[in-house]
TrEMBL record:
Residues 179-316 form the Reverse transcriptase domain. It comes from Spinacia oleracea. It comes from the Eukaryota. The keyword Coiled coil applies. SUPFAM superfamilies: DNA/RNA polymerases. This is Reverse transcriptase domain-containing protein. Residues 39-66 form a coiled coil. Pfam families: RVT_1.
Amino acid sequence: MAEHPKFHQIVQEGWSTVVSGTVMFQVWQKLKIIKQGLKTLHKKDFARLENRIENIRKELGEVQSQLVASPCDISLQVTERECTANLKKFLGIHQGALKQKSRIQWLKAEIKGEIKAFYHGLIGSVADSLEGIDVTVVRQGNHLSASSAQSLVLPVTNAEIDMALKGIHINKKFFYTTKLLKQVNNTAVTLIPKSVIGEVVNNSQAGFIPGRNVADNILLASELVKCYSRKYICPRCMIKLDLKKAYDSLEWPFLKAMMHESGFPDVFVRWVMECLGTVSYSILVNGFPTSPILGKKGLRQGDPMSPYLFALGMDYGVSVKVFG
């Protein structure tokens, strides 16, 4: 459209229109006038291009047929040149429109590919090598009591299934086979009772733990900072850590090892790892999902099980600081 002879005229006339109001309002109003002019031009000269091209071809064919019978007719010759010029014009416009559409489609595909590649590298890949956890440090920390561990693997009743998985088409078979069908693993299953997680997570961790308030740590940090201004105290500092992609970066082998060393029953660990290991993700790009990406690490946002697993993983860092 930018090559149309009236394009620059429409833009110039719209931009020259006198508009009162603030500068921003003037710019917006002028752009609105230009938009309306270009829409009118598009409707007049560019709409239904394929139909126009087909009609011009028919007209040109008829004129050329008449020229065969009357080759010396000047008016037919002029009409033929006009039809040929119009056909070239609209074919060029049509070709330009197709190029623009193809470029847009290519950009969409490229952007979609980049986004999918980013998330595939984030949640669809695993570390080449992982440093093993310090078992001595973990064993010096909190552990699950025998009674709590036993409560995690008690026989599952129909009432519990109805309460925890209402509306989800799944049965008790998972709790005995530790196998979960991938097609149904698109919802969350809370397997760690709130009353148990507090036994294995250090008291300094307040987030997500029932009976603890994260605001307590904020108040404690404020009081510590106030003490820093006192005279005659030894040099000290406070470090604030920001975990980049914390949920997405948690490696499953590490989490599995932490659960085993914290005293969780083996069958319960297999339940949790089956829920994690069968997950897949689709990224919405402009409202359309990409092909599924099989998860290889990380925790799902919004899953009621994720905060407790994350707290368990973070507890290793606390244990290393206390006992390491």
